[in-house]
Amino acid sequence: FETTPAEEKLQGANLTLEGLNTILREEKNSGKNLSPRPPIVTILGHVDHGKTTLLDTIRKASVAAGEAGGITQHISAYQTKKHKELITFIDTPGHEAFAAMRKRGLSIADIAILVVAADDGVRPQTKEVIEYLKEHKLPVIVAINKIDKPEAKPERVKQELAEHGVLFEEWGGETMCTEISAKKNIGIDKLLDSILLVAEVEDFRADQKRDGLAVILESNLDPQKGPAATALIRTATLKVGQDVTAGGAFGRIRRIEDWSGKNLLHATASMPVILYGFNTTPQTNDVVQVVSGKGLARLRSKEALLKDTTKSRTGKIQSEEEKEMKKLCIVLKADVQGSLEAIEQILSTIKSDEIALDIVDSGVGSITESDVRTAENSSALLIGFSSEPTSVAKRLAETSKVEIVTFNIIYKLVDALKERLAALLPPEIVRTDSGRLSVLAVFKTGKRDMIVGGRVSEGKMLRGSLLEIKRGDEIVGTGKMQNLQRNKENADEVGQGNECGVVFEGTIKIQVGDTLICYKEEEKRRTL
Ligand code: GDP
Predict the structure, then answer these.
(1) Which residue's CA lies nearest to atom 17 of ligand 1?
(2) Quick check: 354 pLDDT over 60?
(3) Which pTM was predicted?
């Protein structure tokens, strides 16, 4: 009979990232069953300073070393070997929309590499990272990048970093610094050595005896293999055949692939792997935990029940206010969970009192027939981010008149949606006054029209304008200028100080002494 600690049971099937971090801290403090594990490294820094290039260069080097081949797909984590020691790298997306994910990503990492371009120096995101690292006491190695550039000034960058509180070893501090060129592959070996040195000092370890725990980095729906979850093993071992949960997803691990696509029977601490066998795609930051077969069976039957009730669900319950609002309904599909999260986060910041964006359904993977049907039922626009419709879905969309729009750039997607939302807004009426006329005489009073004469007291009268009639301090009516004459001849405009005749169309009866205010109205499309 195997016992499990009470505290673990308490946390139940849904361990959060914070809960996991607590467990890992306790594990470290207990000192029991610990074996060394590879360090987990993240690369941070200001945009364009070369984070992606550095990640790619290190990855390519390990592929060239013959450990794996033909990797073209985007992966959010990989491992490389240096002096027979493994190092795990995780990608923390640089887009501003991922700021929250970046911070959470950091909570997974053991070591941060702060990339600063030698030709640019300390920039806003560099400062943000320095602050975060200080706050969380995460070991950092500074990589001064782009030293191949003629305008590179590494010494000046170091000076700037020191001014921001980064204390380098060579100046009596603790922080290591390497000068590199990610593009030209200069200094990368030294950087890897520095990582191993920090790892040796920090001595990262994990429990080998307990059940494995992992964090989902991202997930997607593989058309052949089903839900695929990229996970980073945080402690112990996950094995093929184990029953697991991750947030709302669950299943039996059917297959484990390492980052290069190689099949594994088990995965150990710090390994980034792709797990297959979940019933649905788990969310980024969900924690993968092993459950008993019985636990899994219970989840399965619960899901079956839920499916029946959600099928009959048509949209959310709406408040009265919401019902009156004009709405743009969308069904959103993205390639990976991370993008989906980021897009939903940005879209949730669009605020308006008059219109609403309703995400009827969202998910990862290709746009399928079922997405088209959902969109059709809710008159929604079907949006794909790095996700294309299958050929069947495309045909179905054509016949059912569902519009599908796809994007590869987040801001373009957001802008397009904002534009569509803005088109739902009633246009703004912009009024421009051009002049005023003091009425000196009334020549003709018809049922719906009048001819009056007067002097332009301000600005000019423009033929075809709208007119407002002011008596004393009050506006008594409005109408339209049918014609404008000066010296008995038609005129397009009559300027200040001149006398003119106005053919007025409207029901209000103009009197001598009234003022006619001449103005134009334009409809302007609003933006969000
Ligand atoms: P990120 O936004 O930090 O991920 O930056 P990227 O990796 O996308 O790099 C931004 C630009 O800098 C790209 O055009 C890279 O080719 C270039 N770059 C990155 N590293 C180097 C380097 O070491 N030397 C030079 N000359 N250019 C580099």
Answers:
(1) 50
(2) yes
(3) 0.60
515 C-alpha vs ligand 1 centroid, how far in Å? 67
Q: What is the pLDDT of residues 155-191, one digit of tens each?
A: 999 999 999 989 888 888 889 999 999 999 999 999 9
CA of 210 to the centre of ligand 1 (A): 42
Identify the helix (H) or strand (E) that includes residue 416.
Answer: helix 410-424
Residue type for position 382 = L
Measured by CA distance, the residue closest to atom 6 of ligand 1 is: 50
How many angstroms is it from 120 CA to the middle of ligand 1? Answer: 12
From the CA of 61, how far away is ligand 1's center (Å)?
17
**Extended strands (E) in 18-97:** 34-36, 40-45, 77-82, 85-90
DSSP code of 186?
B
pLDDT score at 314: 38
Residue 50 CB–ligand 1 contact under 6 Å:
yes
Query: Given ligand 1 and candidates 60, 178, 183, which is best to mutate, with the most ligand atoms within 8 Å of its CB?
Result: 183
Q: Which residue has the higher pLDDT, 310 or 281?
A: 281
Q: Are 276 and 253 in contact (CB under 8 A)?
A: yes
Identify the H or E element spanning 327.
strand 326-334
Largest CA distance in the chain: 111
Pocket test for ligand 1, best of 47, 49, 52, 53 (most atoms within 8 A of CB): 53
Q: Is the CB of 182 under 6 A from ligand 1?
A: yes
**Closest residue by Cα to residue 259 from 285, 289, 236, 233:** 233
- The predicted pLDDT at position 72 comes to 40
Strand partners, 186: 181
Distance CA 272, CA 228 (A): 13
Look at residue 321 and give its three-state secondary structure: helix
Q: How many residues does the chain have?
A: 528
Among the listed ranges 119-133, 229-243, 312-326, 492-506, which one has the minimum average pLDDT value? 312-326
